[in-house]
Amino acid sequence: MNDQPPEIGGFGPVTQRATIADNVYNELRTALVVGRFDPGQTLTISSLAEAFQTSHMPVREAMRRLGAEGAVEVRSNGSAYVPEVTRVSLDDICRARIALERLATGLAVTKMTAAEIATLELLEHEHTATSHLNNVYEMLKKNHLFHFSIYRAARSPTLLQLIDILWVRYGPFMRMLSDHMGPQLGMGVHEPFMLGHRAIVDAIRSRDAVRAEDLLQDDIERTQRLLQRHCE
Hints:
Elements lengths: L11 H22 L8 E2 L1 H8 L3 H13 L4 E2 L5 E2 L5 H25 L2 H17 L5 H17 L4 H13 L1 H11 L9 H15 L3 H23 L1
Antiparallel strand pairs: 1-3, 2-3
Helix pairs in contact: 1-3, 2-3, 4-7, 4-10, 5-6, 5-9, 9-10
């Protein structure tokens, strides 16, 4: 009896297919995170396949992965829809975000290198600059980059993965936020968020973990209070 495992060769065609599925997944995930889809919006396999100019299979795989993360709710026919927003789900996600993101921020303060802090400061400047472009989605993308440059610096893959899942579940609320902030970008509605980010950078540069955690929580709760009014 041969106990040797069978030799495994290359997987060119499978890798290519997986790459297409990964690209579709990443594009959809980013769109969900920055609020490109309405709460309750239906996402069909056929319409997405047409938009991505690909077959149904990579789209179906991407939707399966997003469904497993709770980013979409998949129906039996393969289509999916963006979860509806409620005050209960908002508060539940924010409570979990505060717990995990405070922890990640505290760890990051003790571990961030001078180069990482300089990058964070640059991202803060870029985020502020987008507020003058009247492009709310670009501003939300920069906001995501700013936050995750902190969380990655915690050097905790487990924390980063959990936070990442919470952000994609938060996507429908970002849509609400973009609907509110978009028409008011030139009216100063974004200023408290910009000032909050600047203060977070200053606290991290000073290696003040507690202050950085408190400011990070303030940032989450500021958005939460704004969205609570819209949920009601």
